[in-house]
Amino acid sequence: MEIYNTLTRRKEKFIPREDGKVSIYVCGPTTYNYIHLGNARPLVFFDTVRRYFTQLGFQVNYIQNFTDIDDKIIKKSLEEGSDAATVSQKYIEEYYKDADALNVARANRHPRVSEHMKEIMEMVSALIEKGFAYEIEGDVYFDVPSFPKYGKLSHRSSDEILSGARVEVDPRKKNPADFALWKAAKEGEPFWESPWGAGRPGWHIECSVMSLKYLGSGFDIHGGGMDLIFPHHENEIAQSEAATGKPFARYWIHNGFITINQDKMSKSLGNFFLVREILEKFNPLSVRFFLLSTHYRSPLDFDFEKLEASGQGLERLKNSIDLLEEAIKKRSSAELKEKDSDFQTKLIDLKKRFNQAMDDDFNTALAIGIFFEAAKEVNTFLNQNTIFGKADLIDAIELYAYFNNVLGLFKTGPDGKFILEEKPHTDDSLVQSLIELLLEIRQEARTKKDWPTADRIRNGLNEMGIIIEDTPDGARWKISVQ
């Protein structure tokens, strides 16, 4: 397996820190809103990376954090007349709903910043003691010039670092590029007591602390979107390696942006689509298909026509699975021993090329293409053969299952079997309009003294849990509470 490492700017052979084990840390969302499609791309991609390692037999320790204390969360809480903890909890729960819909498995751990204040303070203290950080009136900053290798991930010069950093304007800092490790509390903000007074952590320190706590120094893969390379991941490296004196993470993987008309999708530009909004109109697994249909390092330009096309592609694969499962049901176990050697050779070759695609820097676009090749081969085999053994079909469905266990394009049950039937989506406005239409038809029947039709509509709605009440102002309806 070869992985493109942002740190070295080249593909490298993947050699895990421990044989048979893979450790992965991926930066999770800041929980102040629903996730948008740009957030969903790393969510789906790194879930697929984890799935592939698992299929290869690795024991994967996958950590994805929640940033549950941040300026944006505080601002949101003030807008909603709430508190930061309540806002964070709300959007963590909403995150899980979207992640579940996209068939993203839970991480081994989802640590929260608020749960790691002790460890954060310990790392900040260590950096001060070692001369890599300094405190000014309750604020603590990392001294960037004290870490000579600063810039090795983003490959930026000193001038580029200054111009490209989210430089916090503070004349007290020793260097304009120095970044906050701890922030003194402002009035009305949540805070924790620390050796430097009441305050809260800076953005970057949290991921260093949580990744090191759960994975240790020199863990295998650190991932996230390209927008995190600088300053977030650059700062993580500096403070982590300064504190421990050891290499931080070995392979750095960054996915490309999702664009709208070639402009990066982002909340700051106002050109973003919430996953929740998209899922109201599209099958969530079509969205997952779309996100994996382009190599992760390439930009992915979004439009609704491409989502439609993804849904059509998913339907083609579903139809092939349906045909195969139906064919298996029609054959007895007595036919298990018979196998077609040519067909078996094709199945073996398809799995080999699928793995080669994934081994080549997780090329999901090519892997999906091979899934389609498999569907074509299977469909042809079913159409051109009237006599074939059940064993061939079982091998084919197991190949489909292997592909799907990696790509996650279809949900599966506890028995590993495909779940292909979608639950119908209920659009509340559509339901309301249909009920109102039925009530109009019922009223016309009542006017004509067509009591059987009127009663049939009322009784039919009643059986569905919709109660009709006739009043002097007309019929009213409500949903029965069971």
How would you sum up this structure, described in words?
The protein is α/β, with parallel strands linked by helices. The chain folds into 3 domains: 2-255, HUPs (Rossmann fold), CATH 3.40.50.620; 304-419, Anticodon-binding domain of a subclass of class I aminoacyl-tRNA synthetases (Four Helix Bundle (Hemerythrin (Met), subunit A)), CATH 1.20.120; 428-479, no CATH class. It is 47% helix and 15% strand. It has 15 helices and 17 strands. It has helices spanning 37-55, 71-80, 84-101, 117-129, 158-164, 203-215, 229-244, 275-279, 284-292, 304-329, 341-359, 364-384, 390-407, 428-447, 451-463; strands spanning 2-5, 10-13, 21-26, 59-64, 133-136, 139-142, 179-184, 199-201, 219-225, 249-255, 258-260, 263-264, 300-301, 411-412, 418-419, 466-471, 474-479. The strands form 6 sheets. Strands 4-3-9-10 form a 4-stranded parallel beta sheet, with helices on both faces. It has a 4-stranded antiparallel beta sheet with strand order 5-6-7-8. Strand 16 (466-471) and strand 17 (474-479) form a beta hairpin. The longest helix has 26 residues, at 304-329. The protein is flat, with a radius of gyration of 28 Å. The two termini are 55 Å apart. The model has no long low-confidence stretch (mean pLDDT 91).
